[in-house]
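Hello, quick one for you while I still have it in my head. A protein chain has come my way and I'm curious about its shape. Can you walk me through what the tokens say about the fold? No rush at all, and the record is pasted right below.
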Amino acid sequence: MDERLPAEWTSGAPQASEHAPKSLADWAGWLVALAVLVFFAVFGFQAMTWALAGGWQWLWMPVGLPVFAMFSVLTVVFVYTTLRERRRVRVALADIRLERGEGLRPGEPLELRLRATVPAAGKGERTTAPARLTLRLMKRGEASMPDTCCDEAVMQCESMQAARLLYMGTLCARPDKNGGTALWFVTVHDTDGEPFIVAPLRLLPPR
């Protein structure tokens, strides 16, 4: 069995995106930049207006036309890209620690706890923790036989105090006369795909 106990994990599911919020300082800088672009666009338009008066004022046309055209386009592009600016939402965990207790005792519930934190976000993204995880109790018998899922539970996020996350779930294995020779382990999934945690369990004798 390939044990997997990563310290960090990022979901392989398709990532969502959302509008990127801006602070007051960001909006102030954005308004200043917009005002500069609008000023030059208006100046170019005014220069073309002066050129229509005729005479020597036609000299304003070679200046006003390219300035108006360039800064009008820049203003539209600037506003459009700002309104369309988005950031990705990355579902991830860091500082992962799976608590498995003393071991698995057939016929008795086994409580598992997964403790983690939300990793710091990179540029252009927001990180968040998964709302729930799927926990499965697996049994591996003979090498020629596939692994068997003996129990499954949904782990809800129970606590988010001080940036610490706690997921809890309970599994139970039915008594099996052939279970003593099998290899027991748990897997943690965020989707129906491959697990990102595979952890062996110590089998305890029945009481």
